[in-house]
Amino acid sequence: MSPRPKKTKEEVVAPTTETTEATASPIAEKTTKPRAKKTKTETKTETETKHEKATPAEAAHESKHPKTHILQAEINIGMTGHVDHGKTSLTKALTGKWTDTHSEELKRGISIRLGYADALFYEYPGLEGAAKFGSLKEKEGKQGKILRKVSFIDAPGHETLMTTMLSGAALMDGALLVIAANEPCPQPRTAEHLMALKIGNIQNVIVVQNKVDLVTKENALKSYNEIKKFLADYGYTNAPIIPVSANFNANVDALIQTIQEHIPTPKGDVEKPFKMYISRSFDVNKPGTELDKMLGGVLGGSISQGTLVKGQKVEVTPGIEGKPIQIEITSVRNADGELDRANPRGLIAAGTKLDPGITSMDKFKGQILCAPGTLPAPTDKLAIDFFELDRLLGNKLPFPHVHELMVLTVGTNTIVGEVVNVKKSRIDLVLKSKMTIEKGQKIAISRRETAAWRLAGYGIAV
């Protein structure tokens, strides 16, 4: 028997690139096995049969991903609200996944980092009203038909983690604002998160009145009226309010129905140059992995425009020490397996040939992955038109002044800037490190109030 030829490093890396899962997707494994060839007639008949049974979401996906049939999420929905109001519990009720996985999160019982989970929404023929919606394949003996796949972004609600929430808001197309029925409304982070959504121009917001199982009917109605007034004060008068008990999965079907009706799938512009905000980065290699079997760093985030495929040349900006770097994509995956092509929305993991040591522990969070040469050069100087937010809670801050430090959130990047000049609403800043920003881009601005940073307004880059 002749000896088997040795594989190159690229041949070892490409077929086995992983994200955070320890094992490869069974769907991806199946695609590597040889398949028997079908005649043109057989293929046509099978395709026609599939599209007769498929929903529009399934049929559209099959046309884009004919090999793997792995659905990509088509919308990102944020889970926002005050600390301990039940955001992570509600994420689990909708997706089946508990997104607090970091050891410190488990110990403290709060979200510290952005959490991510996907859910398939189904409709069940034969059932009526809210009961015909859900996130399970089967309900009351009825087989569900897929409506769409949704990515949820679970944002932390603690006051010290507001900048983390703001970086997550850059990825959101709509949001659920979770408000506990057993506490007065608004709580500080309830108001601040809604302001953040307003800055991000996120209009499609649904309020989830959680923990209704802990209050009487009278107190639930009192809470409802407080929420209505709060929403009117912030310009979200028409936002639906859905009472639920996340821990008991009560009324979750009504919430899914409301999401389907009030948070439509945005139109993804696949013709524009590729751009993806990086919100996570990883080293997926286990300790002790042999050098020739090590995989490159993985960059996670959401595509805002364009598409991404394996082998594509892209740029990471602002890069390392303010110098963009060009890399090649070795794999494109979501939580279910490898994709032929990634489109806008959903949470994507892009395999690269970067040293995994420099991408570990979210070190590339805040960077942008884009088509080479399509974004402005990184800069450490910024001029903005500043817009102050009206605040219902807390004291009004004086107008920004020279030498004041501000925390700026641009996309998924958070950076400190020092004010060097103020002329009416125009503010010039020098940044602590370089960042990539486009003219006209909105920037969330946090300012120090006593011992904490508070969301105070936003700026428009000029």
UniProtKB/TrEMBL annotation:
CDD domains reported in the protein's UniProt record: eIF2_gamma, eIF2_gamma_II
Q: Where is this region: Disordered?
A: 1-66
InterPro entries reported for this sequence: eIF2G, eIF2g_C, eIF2g_dom_2, eIF2g_GTP-bd, P-loop_NTPase, Small_GTP-bd, T_Tr_GTP-bd_dom, Transl_B-barrel_sf
The Tr-type G domain covers 72-267
GO CC list: cytosol
* Reactions catalysed, as given in the entry: GTP + H2O = GDP + phosphate + H(+)
- GO MF term list: GTP binding; GTPase activity; translation initiation factor activity; tRNA binding
> Which SUPFAM superfamilies does the annotation name?
EF-Tu/eEF-1alpha/eIF2-gamma C-terminal domain, P-loop containing nucleoside triphosphate hydrolases, Translation proteins
- Tree of life domain: Archaea
Which residues are the signal sequence here?
none
Asked if the Swiss-Prot or TrEMBL record annotates the protein with the keyword Hydrolase, the reply is yes
Compositional bias annotation for Low complexity: 13-24
In short, the EC number is 3.6.5.3
- Comp. bias intervals (Basic and acidic residues): 39-65
A Pfam family recorded for this sequence: GTP_EFTU
Gene Ontology biological-process entries:
formation of translation preinitiation complex
Query: Which enzyme type, at the first EC level?
Result: hydrolase
Q: Which family does it belong to?
A: Belongs to the TRAFAC class translation factor GTPase superfamily. Classic translation factor GTPase family. EIF2G subfamily.
Q: What is this protein called?
A: protein-synthesizing GTPase
